[in-house]
Amino acid sequence: MDVRSRPGRRVGGDPMAEKRKVTNLLGLAVLAYLSRGPMHPYELSRTLRDNDDTRSIRFTHGSLYSVVRQLARAGYIVETETVRDSRRPERTLYAITEAGKRELHDWLRDLVETPVEEYPHFLAALSLIAAIPPGEAVSLLATRVARLEQRRDENRALVDATLAKGVHPLFLVEEDYRLAMIEAEIAFIERLIRRITDPDTGWERAWAAFHEGAAQAQETERRNA
Fold first, then answer.
1. Of 14, 48, 112, 206, which is the most buried if we count CB atoms within 10 A?
2. Alpha-carbon gap, residue 88 to 159, rounded angstroms
3. What is the pLDDT, as a whole number, of residue 5?
4. What are the tens digits of pLDDT across the range 15-62?
5. Tell me, which fold does domain 3-113 have in CATH?
6. Which long-range contacts (C-beta less than 8 Å, at least 24 apart) are formed by 89-95?
7. Which of 194 and 217 is assigned the larger pLDDT?
């Protein structure tokens, strides 16, 4: 059955547009790990960190407990027991419910199949990059490429080291995606630099003239003030 025709989804619409009871992606991770078995929040936090999920999902101790409470209120997880240990405070174990399992699968299906508009900081910067002179823009872009190349090399080393430990590539697919995005961004920036600096068709001359004209207009306005 197509996800858009499932009960509770708007047929023909964007399934991500439907309001979820819990929207924080940390909630998705919690549901995924609880589908393996009951855990308490401290164990969930440790599991997220041990699996390096902090590279994909931001969370703090407080935000994790907040999401756990939201999931419980939504009926996606339920308390199963309280573990008492003289060396540690009481810890409440949570288990995923049948509703939680359905939500986990529906949420994942939506995220995988439906592109959504995201708002990266670099995209915002590009939309406003004409506000700085072309020479400075090219220098900054070149620095970004160097830093991206360093990040790419570090990520590759991390992937290689993890694979060498016997981890199946399936559990590193997000790192493959991250590397692909880095490579794509490097290629885009290098192409953009060429479009700016090409001696025959580059944008640099017109871009610089725009800034010179703006500076002259400001100077004239200052003198006439």
1. 48
2. 35
3. 37
4. 444 678 899 999 999 999 999 999 999 999 999 998 888 888 988 989
5. Arc Repressor Mutant, subunit A (1.10.10)
6. 91/40, 91/41, 91/42, 91/43, 92/40, 92/41, 93/38, 93/39, 93/40, 94/34, 94/38, 94/39, 94/40, 94/41, 94/68, 95/34, 95/37, 95/38
7. 194
- Any idea where the domains of the chain sit in the sequence? 3-113, 121-224
- What are the residues whose beta carbons fall under 8 Å from the beta carbon of 55, sequence distance 6 or more? 174, 178
Give residue for tokens 């872009």. Answer: 141
Mean per-residue pLDDT over the chain, rounded = 88
Interatomic CA distance for residues 175 and 182, integer angstroms: 10
